[in-house]
Amino acid sequence: MYDLLTGLTVVEAAAFIAGPSCGLYLGQFGAEVIRIDQVGGGPDFRRWPLAANGESLYWEGLNKAKKSVVIDLARPEGRELAQRLATAPGEDRGLFLTNFPADGFLSYERLKALREDVICVRVMGWGDGRTALDYTINATIGLPTMTGFPDDPRPVNHVLPAWDLLTGAYAAFSMVSAERARRAGKGGCEVRVPLSDIAATALANMGYLAEALVGEGARPRLGNDVFGAFGRDFATKGGRRLMLVAITPRQWRGTVKALGLETAVAALEAELGVSFAAHEAVRYQHRHRLYPLFEAAFAQRTEAELAPVFEAEGVCWSAYRTMAEASADTALFGAANRVFGAAAQPSGLDYPVPGPAATVVGHFRDAPTPAPRLGAHTDEVLAELLGMSSGEIGRLHDAGLVRGAA
Length: 406
Fold this sequence. Notes:
Elements: E1 9-13, H1 18-28, E2 32-38, H2 57-62, E3 66-71, H3 76-86, E4 95-98, H4 108-114, E5 119-124, H5 134-141, H6 162-186, E6 189-194, H7 195-205, H8 208-214, E7 230-235, E8 241-246, H9 249-258, H10 262-272, H11 280-285, H12 287-299, H13 303-312, E9 316-319, H14 323-327, H15 330-333, E10 340-341, E11 353-354, H16 378-386, H17 390-398, E12 402-403
Parallel strand pairs: 1-2, 1-4, 2-3, 4-5, 5-6
Antiparallel strand pairs: 3-12, 7-8, 8-9, 10-11
Helix pairs in contact: 1-6, 5-7, 6-7
């Protein structure tokens, strides 16, 4: 936790990954992020993976550093209360994050009628309001047809929800940008961040679109090959598979030296009339002539024999591991990495909990803040944001419009 955004209050009404990850990032940098939760939890409240006691490890991971207010959103009075929270008065309030439909009860027009300078960052599937998830967006933009091996025509989905995560980060950037503009006197606004546009612009920015339209057309399936450079997995003596990438000339020279391939590579260069150190594209174009040399060199040594030589020569490599194997790496996921710490999560389980991924040099990094119990902050938030008395809050409880922690 850092204090860079201390003072800002963001109200979040969102589920799944993109919206909650945006609120998570803002909360980890010091903003007060208040979730509006439905009675019994939203559609992702019990989403897998689950702890043995039924708590969602998914939900508590994405909702750290937040507060929870439970409101019955099925009733008009509950929806009105949610609108009031989203547009609460105060210079550092009126910041609303959601993935609810653009034309529903949390539409920008309805919120603006309550607060002229409200800022609403709305995560969407498609820009026209149609529903989409990371997997359907990914299928639409063509990446699964590029993923996999050439001898298997089936599309391959990626297990990482990249567009959700990128959208969440871009939404956080949008929120801070809009708040800065409002502070400069430019008023409020609605910022719509569709997964489809994040995916489309990302691919265009990286040249994928131009490649398809004016370049060499559809990119072929490459298996584990790195496009445009020298990189692939190789099997060591003993069967361990290592991923090796040599993009820069220094990496290439170090790799060739570490594997003892100077003479063989020089002979191939002379035969082809090229210099593999000249450019990564040359290595990519002739990778099928290089691969047998590397396969033979890897097969002669174990990972234990290769690792110290690779490190000494600055080779860019890594061994393939399962998630279970990686989770035992304390330098990555444990106490040796100060990004992680301890927090009393709702599941009650003891495991490393991440704080902000970024390190603000020279600033104090506080311990990670856990996810809330559903409704744990209902009374506190209603009193602080809306100035309600204990009697008013009590009547809302009696009417079943709000709930506290179970």
